[in-house]
Amino acid sequence: MILEAKGIKKSYGNRFNRTEVLKGIDLEIEKGEFVSIMGASGSGKTTLLNVLSSIDRVSSGHIFIEGEDITAMKDKKLANFRKNDLGFIFQQYNLLDTLTVKENILLPLSIRNMKEDEVEKQFDVVSNELDIHELSEKYPNEISGGQQQRTSAARAFVHQPKIIFADEPTGALDSKSASNLLNKLKQMNTNSRSTIMMVTHDATAASYSSRVIFLKDGLVYSTLRKGDRPQEDFYKEIMSTQSVLGGVGVES
Amino acid sequence: MSLNRIILKNFFRNIRNYGLYIFALVFSVSLYFSFVLMSKDDSAAEELSSSTMMSSGFLIGSILLVVIIVTFVMFANSIFLKRRNTELALFQLIGLNRNKVFRILLQENAIIYFGSLIIGILFGFLLSRILLMVLLRIMQIELSVGLSFSTEAVLQTAGLFIAIFLLLLIQNFIFLKRTKLIDMITLNRTNESDSRRLGFGTVLMGIVGISMVAGGYYLSTLLLDYIEMAVPLVFTVLVVVVIGTYITFKFSIAFVLNVIRKSKKGHVGITDVLSLTSIMFKMKSNSFLLSMISIISALSVGLMSLSYITYYSAGSSVENTMPYDYVFEDAEGLDFYESLLTEEGIEYETIQLPSLEYEADTDGAISADLELMDINGSTLLMMVVSEAYFDSVDVGENETIITGTSDVMQSFVDYGLNEPVTFVSGDYKHSLELVDIQDRAILPSQISFGSPAAIVDEAVYQQLADNQSEEARTAEMTRTYALDIAGEDSMEIFKMMDQEENPYFQSKIEQYTVQMQALGMTMFIIAFVGLSFLLTSGCILYFKQVGESEDERGSYNVLRKLGFSEREIIKGLSIKMAITFGIPLLIGLLHAYFAVNAGWFIFGTEMWTPMLTVMGVYTALYSLFAIMSLLYYKRIVRESLN
């Protein structure tokens, strides 16, 4: 087990006006899994991701990554932990416009002492896998949205983190670039046994993963596992669960 | 590839974005450096030492400057930090801890900061040469401006800016400590809108704000009538107006905008989207900033107007107290200089003018607020001279003209034309009709001591002289011995006459020069500080607009995709600029007008011309920043579709 969350609660606001976004979530993720979190808007899926990925602090509860409780970590240790064990992909790519694709990708490696050729090798592996090797000297504003998101994915993978957190990675992409990216993610998930946790509202995107967790009103509503089924069947089950949940299901 | 290299590269590629910040720094450094350099300039210091206000003036000026600069730089830094949020967040996400991020900021800041310091000092050096020439010109000192460089000034400037650098580090540190990672990632999307309902409270506060300002204005006009309470009154006015301004911006303007917005019932046009709603969206931070800028503008326009009024009136106020080129104490003095001037071959005209000291009843033509003037009884001291000494003056037997009514006096004493003036000496009374009033004095102040002088018919003068009571008969004391140089008087004549062993005399040209130097100095310092105020507040508004334009880039994109033309968008933005720059300027000018109106007569003889000149120049310079912002917007709008 790589990640274990126990009784996660998160609330915002002050003493007089509190909104509880997460109301006690327990979950376990095995190494090498590709997990999607789904739910209607406001169900707390992004908040859950932020909390699990140490971007935000929990109000109560504990999160263990490989047995280490990250909710109790100090800033320095947390930063170290992010450096070594986590990778992020955002809806808005979050690339630095001033750096080339290659430099953006190598950013996480630049803060650790690695040998030049090792860095180069690592870059070749991820950039080839994500099909952006020939773009390496271009700047983010010179490439398409799909390519930018793949760059951002490459940056998340390049230091071989234990878990990759993706917040609506396909949100700003057209369906072709989206399926392209998801295929790559899945491929990297199986090839490098890295764990991926993705928030999405898109049933198609979710059908690429091996497990889908549905949230409703800050609680885990149900969990679907793909098992050995073909992707289409899994997609149908996600759709039907989503329509039971009500809300956003129909649009995709 | 090391992190340092990436940071450096990132920095240099971003340099255009930092342009503003660098500009702010270079600007502040050169401002301060030139100021310090001037105060240390040796060649000028000799000439300037005649004005005793010099050093203290420079000291006060430099303290004010430091305050402005610190505020300005810290403001620029905070904008700078916000613009780099995503970058800083990303650094933390890839595993840099806060200390490391802080160190990155420190390195970058150090490059920018000390780079700007050097450039600023070079610029400041050039600037100070120009400013010094201006200063000497204002003070009417003829001196060629050399190129002296002061290490001390460099050290002083560097010292100050290192101190500010440390302050900025603290600011950065607090920013990093306070802002959580999650907020950094979402900071760009914060809504500053004060989305409070248009409740009773807002309306009430809106009215309170405006009435506080109006009340302050009203109080300021009372200043003249309650001069004995001037200090508490001025203080009250200041507090009421400052708080009132803030409330006005916070509630009244939001309230007015809200009413306009409500009246549209959701049918907002393109201009509304870009002006009204955009301003309201950022009202929370705007209200503080805009009221600050109003008050700063009011302060600098007010001070500059007053000092310019003083400078502008210097000539006429000397004229009022010194009607002749040279005035002597007695007949011997006059004789001495007559022979001296003849020896030198300078033509002149002598004046020997007898005058009487009389009391005038404060009824009829003269109505005086005697309690204020602290004078016992119901009479006003007045000088009387005969018309026979003035070619251009003609008064009838029953008529008189009052002269030398300075503005300060006129605020306490009112004269009614065509009413009787009664001269009193003991039991003797003589009434004449007042036919004219003139500001210009005909007696030097060493004779009149600031009292007005009445011109009467020669026969009447004799009567008055004959009936003057014994104790007032000090004929020798009230005789004016003076001479006018034929043609222009000059400093050479003055210097020739002004020798240590020579008898005492007063000189108009000397008084004028002394005044010009003292006033020129004051005006220069105030103008310098005022312009710094102007430039910094203009820059702050400009920076803010730049920040907002970056935030709104997305909306321009949407609007243009919806089919609005570039010109339509720019039109809406022009209105926004007019509001954000215009309202604080307008309120500032209004504040300044009432401030100047309340007290200008203490400073000089003419209010409108100098005040309007200052306001005109200020408005013109200020508008430059509005235009600059608009141009920036234009570029963003043009690029937004790409």
UniProtKB/TrEMBL annotation, chain A:
It is found in: Cell membrane. GO terms for molecular function: ATP binding; ATP hydrolysis activity; transmembrane transporter activity. CDD domains: ABC_MJ0796_LolCDE_FtsE. Its main location: membrane. Gene3D superfamilies: P-loop containing nucleotide triphosphate hydrolases (3.40.50.300). GO terms for cellular component: membrane protein complex; plasma membrane. It is a peripheral membrane protein. Keywords: ATP-binding, Nucleotide-binding, Transport. It comes from the Bacteria. PROSITE patterns: ABC_TRANSPORTER_2. Part of the ABC transporter complex hrt involved in hemin import. Responsible for energy coupling to the transport system. PANTHER family: ALPHA-D-RIBOSE 1-METHYLPHOSPHONATE 5-TRIPHOSPHATE SYNTHASE SUBUNIT PHNL, LIPOPROTEIN-RELEASING SYSTEM ATP-BINDING PROTEIN LOLD. The complex is composed of two ATP-binding proteins (HrtA), two transmembrane proteins (HrtB) and a solute-binding protein. Belongs to the ABC transporter superfamily. HrtA family. This is Putative hemin import ATP-binding protein HrtA.
From TrEMBL, chain B:
Keywords: Cell membrane, Membrane, Transmembrane, Transmembrane helix, Transport. It is a multi-pass membrane protein. GO terms for biological process: transmembrane transport. Residues 60-170, 528-640 form the ABC3 transporter permease C-terminal domain. It comes from the Bacteria. The chain crosses the membrane at residues 20-38, 58-81, 110-138, 158-176, 197-219, 231-257, 288-311, 518-543, 577-603, 615-633. GO terms for cellular component: plasma membrane. The keyword Repeat does not apply. It is found in: Cell membrane. Its main location: membrane. Belongs to the ABC-4 integral membrane protein family. This is FtsX-like permease family protein. It comes from Salinicoccus hispanicus.
